[in-house]
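Chain particulars:
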Amino acid sequence: MQSLYRAISYGFYPGSMAVLGLGIAHFNSPVSVLVWTIFLCGIVVLPLLTLFLFMRLGKVSDIFIFQREQRHGLYVLGVVFSALSGWFIFCENATYAAVWSMCNMVVLFLLLIINFMGYKISAHMAGAAGLLGWVICLQLIGWAFFITLLLVILVYVARKGLSAHSHFELIIGFCLGLFVTFALASFLLTYYGFSCSFV
């Protein structure tokens, strides 16, 4: 069972949730190769390379369960990479992809602030719940909603099964990702005059 929990944690981490969100945005507005490249580099590739580098240097002992203090450098660089990618995408065009990119950056920034305050919450849950908030904001109440909800449940069970977080840390991560993403995405989509429904 632990192997299954680890597989879920590897497969459905915040970066993969972000990519799924960009894929959903792609169905409603064109996403250029440049935007995909910037997004993947800033949200997935560079953060993962940083994580592996930290592990190689012995700064992080375990990819799943490491001390709060060990997250500081990773979160700071993650926010920097995410902010740069979000800024470039907004410069490219204010599209659904740009809104989703900004939501990811803000949630990650809040995770960093909370971590520096001495608290630990689940980034995995924040990422999965953020995707759920994005789906709800776009009014995709159908197969996309139920599949995303299932992903959220799988991530919750896996992270708890690995003893990576307490129920409280998982619930706070869920609330952060869901409500911040939904509120920010709703505001930005309305501000830029986008439709909040794919139907």
